[in-house]
Write a structure and sequence with these properties.
Largest sheet: 2 strands, antiparallel
Order of helices and strands: HHHHEEHH
Oligomer: single chain
CATH topology of the largest domain: Arc Repressor Mutant, subunit A
Number of domains: 2
Number of strands: 2
Helix content: 55-70%
């Protein structure tokens, strides 16, 4: 019998793998890496830009991963930093026009994907409740990851 922990872990890992697979497939159509999708979507929400440190926190990625992807996105002219700025974690990263167009593509594909996987299965209210529960679980997992498993 599968324990609750195993079932939860398998499902969450499986969901993450499928999201990455979908991101990869869709971003390849535009000539980009799947990993760009999350950063484009995040930067799209913050028009004033974000520092690399802020991206690390919001996307829950380590500094090396963010630096690598942002450098690649700069090469592809999807993001930019102020010309006078030194590369670093304090300069704001913003989307270029090409980046905004690609972020719009990501947003549209995400909307279609959400509709395809949950549209007929749940109502909008159920979807909102699911996201609230998932967000709560994520925050609790972050706390346990930081502070350790509470002892009885």
């Amino acid at each position: 019998m599968i324990s609750r922990f195993e079932q939860f872990s398998y499902v969450i890992s499986g969901i993450n793998r499928q999201i990455q697979k979908i991101e990869r497939a869709e971003m390849i159509k535009r000539g980009f890496k799947g990993a760009f999708a999350q950063y484009l979507a995040t930067l799209h929400r913050y028009e004033e830009g974000l520092t690399a440190s802020e991206l690390c926190e919001i996307c829950d990625k380590d500094k090396a991963a963010v630096s690598r992807i942002i450098a690649e996105m700069e090469e592809k002219e999807l993001v930019e930093r102020p010309k006078k700025s030194v590369r670093g974690y304090r300069s704001k990263i913003t989307l270029t026009e090409k980046g905004k167009e690609t972020a719009d593509f990501v947003a549209e594909k995400a909307k279609l994907a959400v509709s395809a996987v949950s549209g007929e299965v749940m109502t909008e209210q159920q979807r909102e409740e699911l996201y609230l529960i998932l967000d709560t679980l994520y925050k609790n997992l972050q706390k346990v990851g930081k502070e350790g498993i509470p002892q009885d």
